[in-house]
Specification:
mainly alpha, 14 helices, 0% strand
């Protein structure tokens, strides 16, 4: 079996890999909690670097070719999702750490998994990649700013720390990957087949680290977090789809906006919770659980959307 075949297997069974990782870390947290949870940042950096290696210049061209779709996606991403996260967390009376974690999920940009689900759904994959890329770059400023605006009355938010964390964890690895992809094509072609495997492995390790370090608290708070995560993800899909319908967009664009809106970069939310809210251990949990749920439900969404014509 060559690297391409191994990578295809990993990508096909991505959800199973992540769920198994979560179960193992929950059942036997002592197997992993000796690893510093701050390593989450490094694995997210690897994930973002691998994403950068897949970005082409044409991914930015889509901004000019389809500006209204990009604009709607950006506005919805950084308004609807943060507001929904805060409302859901408040209605469920989540303790402060969980509320912070859920809001961070809502303020983060779309994740790379949205591109895969969009493709499987018959959506506009180029638009999805463009939205993910643009939103990730804008998140450098918007994620810390929006988090500060929403959470400032509830908890101290170090907006500068959030900004620096995103630059270090997301932008630098992403830009480095993009530069290497643009100027060292031959090298990138050699490693491209294993990039999905690297991404899936990184996500699985992030989930393992977060759950193993919070397993005891999850026993008492796990259900309420799951309810919050499911509610945010479902409403993201519903609002994105409804928004596209109201604006009279073509079906493939509607699917794309719905998926891009609901499927967040939950790994980034987890990393930001670790670096910027070290005193709120539970703030890392919503991001980890969101990662598992959105990949699970994403396959269902892909199946439903694919049937739509």
């Amino acid at each position: 079996m060559n690297l391409k075949q191994i990578s295809d297997v990993f990508e096909k069974y991505m959800l199973i890999v992540i769920v198994i990782a979560a179960i193992i870390s929950f059942i036997n947290p002592n197997s992993f909690n000796w690893i510093d949870v701050n390593y989450v940042n490094y694995f997210l950096m690897i994930l973002m670097f691998s994403m950068g290696l897949t970005i082409e210049f044409d991914d930015f061209v889509v901004v000019f070719k389809k500006p209204k779709y990009i604009a709607v996606g950006i506005i919805a991403q950084f308004t609807l999702m943060p507001i929904l996260a805060f409302i859901i967390g408040s209605l469920l009376n989540l303790e402060i750490g969980l509320l912070v974690g859920l809001v961070l999920v809502g303020t983060c940009p779309g994740g790379t998994a949205s591109n895969v689900i969009t493709y499987l759904s018959g959506g506009d994959t180029a638009l999805s990649i463009g939205m993910t890329t643009v939103n990730t770059i804008l998140a450098t400023v918007l994620t810390p700013l929006i988090s500060f605006i929403i959470l400032k009355t509830t908890v101290d938010v170090d907006i500068l720390s959030l900004f620096i964390s995103i630059v270090q964890i997301v932008i630098i690895p992403l830009v480095l990957g993009f530069i290497i992809n643009r100027y060292f094509k031959r090298f990138v072609e050699k490693v491209r087949d294993i990039l999905p495997t690297i991404a899936i492995t990184s996500i699985a390790i992030i989930v393992i680290l977060v759950i193993s370090h919070t397993a005891d608290k999850l026993l008492t708070m796990g259900l309420i977090v799951l309810v919050a995560v499911i509610a945010l993800n479902l409403l993201g899909h519903i609002c994105g789809f409804a928004l596209g319908k109201i604006l009279g967009f073509p079906l493939d664009k509607i699917k794309t906006i719905a998926i891009e809106l609901a499927m967040q970069n939950s790994g980034l939310a987890t990393a930001l919770a670790t670096t910027s809210f070290p005193n709120l251990a539970m703030a890392t949990v919503p991001g980890a659980m969101y990662s598992i749920w959105q990949n699970l439900f994403g396959t269902v969404v892909a199946y439903i959307f694919k049937k739509m014509r």
